[in-house]
Structures are given as C-alpha cells and as structure tokens.
Design brief:
Elements lengths: L8 E3 L5 E3 L5 H29 L6 H17 L2 H9 L8 H34 L10 H19 L2 H4 L2 E4 L2 E4 L8 H34 L10 H38 L4 H18 L2 H11 L2 H16 L4
Antiparallel strand pairs: 1-2, 3-4
Helix pairs in contact: 1-2, 1-3, 1-9, 1-10, 2-4, 2-5, 2-10, 4-5, 4-7, 4-8, 7-8, 8-9, 8-10
C-alpha cells in the first residue's frame, strides 16, 4: 500500500520532538511493491484479456470482477513511481500533480475493491436466498448500473484526498505525503474516520450479513431450496472467499490506520507509542496492496468455466509451434 512520506521527527509539544525510525521502509516498501507490481500486472491483465477476448457472454459476476481488475490495474501501474520514491529514501521527483494522482489511485483501488466485492457478495446472496423474487434485479443491466454507481461513489468519497495529499519539503528534499502534511493532520482526522466508516465498516457489515444468511440457508428449508446444491455451494464459497480477503487484508489495515490516526492526534506526546503504531500501520500499508494480486483469484476460483478457459489458453500456448 502507499507510504506516507513524512517528517522524520514529529512535534509532540512546542519544545520536544519525537524521533521516528523509518529506515525499515526503504527496504520493505520497494521490495513489497515490486512483488505486487509483477503479480498484480500479470494476473489482472489475464482477467481482462480472458474477459474481453475469450468470453462471449458476460455474467453479472464477470462485470463486477472486470471492474475490480481495472481498479487493481490503475493502482498497480502507479507502483513503479512509489518503488523509485522509497528506493531514493522518500525523495519525490515527479511533481505535485503526480503525487496527488498516485495517492488518489491507491485509495480508489482500496475502496473500489471493497465496494465491488460487496456487489459480488450481495449478488450471490440474492441468487441463493431469494432466487425468484430477485430475478429481475440480477441482470447485466443492473450490474452495469451498480458498477457505475460504485465508481461515482468512490470518486466523490475520495475527492478530498486530492486536497490533503500534496508534496512538501523535508530535510531539504521534496516528499509526497500520503495522508496529509503534519500541520493539516487534525483537519484530516475527521475525514479519515468518515472514510473508514463509510468506505470499509458499512460494506464489511453487509458482507458479514450476507455470509451469515447464506450459511443459514444451507440448514433451513426456504425459497433457496429451489437453487441447486452445487450453485448454492459455489455462491457461498465466493462470499467466504471475499470475507477471508477482508479478514486478512482490509480489517488489519483499517484497525492499524485508525489507531495511528488517534495516536497522531491525541497521544503525540507518547513517543514509544507513536513509534509502535507508526511501524504497525506502515507495515500493513504495503501488505494491503496485495489485494490487487488476490482479487483476480476470485475470477478463477469462483467459476469453473473461467478456470477451464484459462487452462485451455495455457495448454494452447504451450503446444503452439514457435513462429
């Protein structure tokens, strides 16, 4: 995930400074982002190629997962700039506008991924628990409307990041702030909390509810019995995979970021605490970017046709004679 290039020392009161040791990030971040770039680029490009060139008819899930791949690719393509930035020890040579764009693309990927995964979960939930009553809403037309609304919500929700994220000068070199500069952090706090609630907590609760209700449908006789067992099992597997992705990626990141925001605003006088939460948050930031590599796996793990199509393409390329 994107890194906040910030002052090497943070003011805890008018006379004291808290030194922060951030040498680890100049090794961790270029390495982590390089892995995400290589895997994310290949996997998401494969999803788009198979969907656009080898899929005759898109399902609703395909529409959601293709938009998810687009969101991942936008973030992945910005990673080389971050790799260079951290390899040069936080020096940002690309200008203010590129800084704002890179930070915006990261959060667009993060919250776009969360909302598209929510759309997939709700779609599967309706198909299993209310197959008859929801049939008019589980169409490609509504999937397109849903993805359009999702992109609009993400853009509106993240417009303030274009104001808060900017470049600055620290130790005689230009840096690119992720959240915002230290002097604007108090103003950013309220926005950061709102973003956590609306962009993560609400969708997470929706996915958790879908997961619980779908599992419940397996052990109770209701309308979902009309849906065949293999289809129900596949749908529940999809939602469980989405929930697992949230549990291992999005939840730890938002917990560490929330704690980091609170400490930065209310407990900056506690230097050991500030150092600890800073390290935790900045370690999870690049790790959450790995969702760009995990998201494409949903395309292959939740659809037998997608796996077969992918394996056939690999087999054809393997046996094809060289030109």
């Amino acid at each position: 995930m994107m890194e906040l290039s910030e002052m090497s020392t943070l003011r805890t009161n008018r006379t004291a400074l808290c030194p922060l040791n951030e040498d680890y990030k100049h090794i961790l971040l270029p390495l982590a982002y390089s892995v995400v770039f290589l895997l994310g680029l290949g996997l998401n490009a494969s999803v788009l190629w198979l969907s656009c060139c080898r899929t005759k008819e898109w399902t609703c899930s395909t529409i959601y997962l293709v938009n998810l791949a687009v969101a991942d690719l936008l973030h992945v393509c910005s990673l080389p700039l971050l790799i260079l930035n951290y390899a040069m020890r936080d020096k940002w040579p690309f200008g203010t506008h590129v800084c704002k764009l890179v930070r915006f693309l990261f959060y667009a990927n993060l919250y776009g991924s969360i909302l598209f995964l929510t759309c997939v979960s709700v779609h599967r939930f309706l198909g299993v628990c209310y197959p008859i009553r929801s049939i008019n809403y589980r169409t490609r037309k509504f999937a397109v409307i849903g993805t359009t609304i999702t992109w609009i919500l993400v853009i509106i929700e993240l417009l303030p990041t274009l104001i808060f994220a900017h470049t600055g000068t620290v130790n005689n070199q230009t840096v690119c702030y992720d959240l915002t500069s230290p002097d604007k952090f108090s103003s950013y706090f309220a926005y950061g909390m709102m973003l956590t609630v609306s962009g993560f907590l609400v969708p997470f609760c929706i996915i958790l509810l879908c997961c619980c209700l779908m599992i419940k449908s397996l052990i109770q006789s209701n309308e979902s019995c009309i849906v065949g067992t293999p289809l129900r099992t596949k749908a529940i597997r999809t939602v469980l995979l989405v929930f697992a992705l949230f549990a291992v990626s999005f939840v730890p990141f938002h917990i560490t970021r929330t704690v980091y925001l609170i400490v930065r605003v209310y407990f900056t006088g506690n230097c050991p605490l500030l150092q600890g939460v800073s390290v935790s948050y900045k370690i999870w930031r690049p790790l959450v970017s790995f969702n760009s590599c995990i998201n494409p796996l949903l395309y292959f793990l939740t659809g037998n046709k997608n796996r077969i199509r992918f394996m056939n393409e690999l087999r054809n390329n393997k046996v094809s004679p060289p030109p």
